[in-house]
Amino acid sequence: MLYGSRRRDRFECSEVIDVSCRPLPVNTLHQDGTGRFPVTRLFVMEDWSDCLDVAVQIARRAGQVVQSAVKQEKQVSSKSTPTDLVTEADHQVEELIISTLRDKYPSHRFIGEESSAAGVKCELTDAPTWIIDPIDGTCNFVHRYRNHHILCLNHRVNMFLSSQHTILHFQFPHGGGEHRICCKERDVSKALILTEIGAKRDPATLDIFLGNMKKLLSAPTHGVRIIGSSTLALCHIASGAAEAYYQYGLHCWDIAAAAVIIREAGGCVMDTTGGPLDLMSRRVVAAGTREIADYVVKQLQPINYGRDDTDPDGLA
Ligand SMILES: O=P([O-])([O-])O[C@@H]1[C@@H](O)[C@H](O)[C@@H](O)[C@H](O)[C@@H]1O
Ligand SMILES: [Mg+2]
Ligand SMILES: [Mg+2]
């Protein structure tokens, strides 16, 4: 089981390690003088296994809501741009998840895609926080396109919950059990690379987006794919179906759950500059190997989408 208690402002956790679900004695942490506590081990402050059970049940219930909604007529509206779609099913699923969890865990905090779009501040504190994308790939959902959409929940104590592919019953287990293994390919000319377009479609953004794709296609790589769901695409890195993923314009709720799966499967997740992942930065590079991740980082010209915590509609 992937587990840990990561209080953002108290220490940096150097890695997520498998620990059993039992309280561990809190050892002395050696302050490194920078006010941060370099943690070589994670300390399970509390037993979170109950959260996992509750969340897997909600993921399944939400999946049933989505599965029945996909066959029905939808009321579709848009958010930050005309291509950033949302339906009543997105709202219904997010409301179901947050209301159930809030009843059960009144002290926990929530970051939800549709709550954020309605103006609720995206704020990560050291309180246990659920990061929720009720339907990732809403455009696919609206078009009933090969049913590529996925529900993702992440619990900010670095406990990955269930990310359930609602239509193909394609479920990534919560980190435990059979481990997913990333591709260990180091040769970019043998890599399949995934990306997503993001919501901006102005000519300048599209020129940069297409320029980045052209650079990666002419490496040459085996190919570049856009499947319409960043979370599902990131999960494909963890399952070894593709070697790398990059994107500007996704959100913390697209990244949070999948990043845990990828790390647990032995891959790497980072910022598009090659530095550590900043969950709120609206950009990511992930790969099965560091070599391919570093190659992708070197090809990219940045696209500015702002940040989830300061500029949620990303039209900076
Ligand atoms: O809105 P949603 O379907 O949850 O998530 C989508 C992401 O999965 C996709 O990668 C991105 O390009 C879209 O703009 C949108 O953010
Ligand atoms: Mg999404
Ligand atoms: Mg969504």
From TrEMBL:
CDD domains for the chain: IMPase
Involved pathway(s): Polyol metabolism; myo-inositol biosynthesis; myo-inositol from D-glucose 6-phosphate: step 2/2
EC class of the enzyme, as a word: hydrolase
InterPro entries reported for this sequence: IMPase (IPR033942), Inositol_monoP_metal-BS (IPR020583), Inositol_monoPase_Li-sen (IPR020552), Inositol_monophosphatase-like (IPR000760), Inositol_monophosphatase_CS (IPR020550)
Keywords: Hydrolase, Magnesium, Metal-binding
Assigned EC number: 3.1.3.25
Disulfide bond in keyword set: no
PROSITE patterns named in the record: IMP_1, IMP_2
Reactions that this protein is recorded to catalyse: a myo-inositol phosphate + H2O = myo-inositol + phosphate
Record's keyword annotation contains Nucleus: no
Cofactor(s) for this UniProt protein: Mg(2+)
Family classification: Belongs to the inositol monophosphatase superfamily.
Protein name (record): Inositol-1-monophosphatase
Organism: Labeo rohita
